[in-house]
Amino acid sequence: MSWLSQVVADFFAEVDWWYFATIPLFTGVIGWLINWSGLWMLFSPVQFRGVRIPGMRELAGVLPRKVQEVPGILQGGVGWQGIVPARAAKMGSIAVDKAIAKLGTPAEFYQQLEPDRIAEHIVTVFRPEIPQLVDEVMRREHPRLWRDLPRPVREAVVERVQQQLPAVVGRVTDEIGVHIDQLLDPKIMVIDHFRKNPALVVRIFRDFGQRELDLMVTFGFVFGFLLGIPVAFLDHAIGTWWALPVLGVVVGWVTNALGMWLIFEPTEPRRILGVKAHGLFLRRQEQAAEVYAQIIAEDVITLERIGDFLLDGPRGDRTRAMLATALRPAIDRAAGPARAAVRVAIGADRFDTIRESVAQEAVGRTLTPFRDPAFSAQQADKIRVLIARRTKELPPRDFVEMMRSAIKEDEWMLYAHGAIMGAGGGFLHYALFAALGRAH
User: Fold this and answer.
1) TM segments (predicted)?
2) Does residue 73 sit in the same domain as residue 93?
């Protein structure tokens, strides 16, 4: 009998088949649980859940960098927040750098919204407000003059302003278009919105990737089971109580790593051992692009939010000043031939104050139609088409980077979680059979 035949004969004579055969089943179930709970860790909870510990915030500054990355630690808490929502702002930043910045400049987004239609909408909404606007400013700045003017004269002033409104608004929307690259910062818009709405980032993954994520959980069992076969042989060869927990660490770590690889790699189709391999998310880049574009167009880069950013964002003062400059000539023209006489009657400074007041009052009202949800929704489809087209054109590596950015640096937590669960599974298997008196 050869040496190999003797080894095989000894193995069959000595092995406890129940103990041996259940190892792959255990590792398969543990692999499934690892990937299932790993997905929970990725997305839940959306907001931090835990307890604040006095002194933890101060202690966090001296802890290892990897420990500081655990959600809640730097804020002085012990608990958990889903990795994706915890890194929502970071994903927004990288999404802009890797994708949205390549999808189009602010000027392209603005042109996609059809400024002429915006101008028409502004005129339609703003025209009925002109009488009240002029009346309010004049009553505040020069009530006696306004009161003493005959009604036909006052109505003529209002009518002149209304007649000039389309040209004025057209000039305003043109000015916005010319300066939009300086007034609008999509990166700040996206980061700020993702930070305030972490559930939105979760939705991006869930809406187009749920099928792949579910498949990742299923493959957790497959990977765990297959890895459990060599583990069973190694455990039998080592023959000590600590073998299964130690090997379980390897199984847990590798199972999670393979699950992440399955979703995102390889970025280009290629054959591995004769089998075509391609990242699950990347196989459906076109469908993913449509879902991603829909969310960005409906919730992030909308006409409504552009209007908010232009007036109330970090560059809002510049927008208001630009719009006021565009509106001032209209007030001069509204006075018509009487402009010089009115200027003399009330004084140059007073006339300039009235003109400035009307311009400043008109600024906010001019962009109010931007904030019209119904009109914003109508325009959203144009943004969606642009983003979808450009996202489909992204190189696969950039697409992966955009989607994986929220979790890339924190994947070690998932792998560590898998390793801990793998060790726990090994201890559980050994303890169960030890209680039955069948552990080696």
Assistant:
1) 17-43, 213-234, 240-264, 412-436
2) no
- Residue (of 265, 292, 275, 281) closest to 213 by Cα position: 281
Distance CA 143, CA 154 (A): 12
- Asked if residues 313 and 416 have their Cβ atoms less than 8 Å apart, the reply is no
Same domain? For 169 and 154 the reply is yes
Q: Do 309 and 255 share a structural domain?
A: yes
Q: State the amino acid at position 391 in one-letter form.
A: T
76 and 140 in a single domain? The answer is: no
Closest of 17, 82, 73 to residue 47, by C-alpha: 82
Q: State residue 341's pLDDT score.
A: 47
- Longest C-alpha distance within the chain, in Å? 124
Say yes or no: 256 and 174 in one domain.
Answer: yes
User: What is the average pLDDT across 228-257?
Assistant: 86
Residue where the block lists tokens 């709405």: 197
210: CB partners within 8 A, 6+ apart: none
Closest CA to 359 of 320, 388, 393, 397: 320
Contact 14, 6 (CB under 8 A): no
For position 33, what pLDDT does the model report?
92
Q: How many structural domains compose the chain? A: 2
pLDDT digits (tens, 9 = 90+) for 122-178: 777 777 777 777 777 677 666 776 777 677 777 777 777 777 777 777 777 777 777
Q: Are residues 62 and 33 in the same domain?
A: no
d(CA 177, CA 170): 11
- Looking at the structure, do residues 237 and 264 belong to the same domain, yes or no? yes
Same domain, 255 and 162: yes
DSSP-H helix ranges across 284-410 = 285-295, 303-312, 316-335, 339-346, 348-366, 373-393, 396-404
Range of the domain at 68: 47-80
* CA–CA gap between residue 245 and residue 421 (Å, rounded): 9
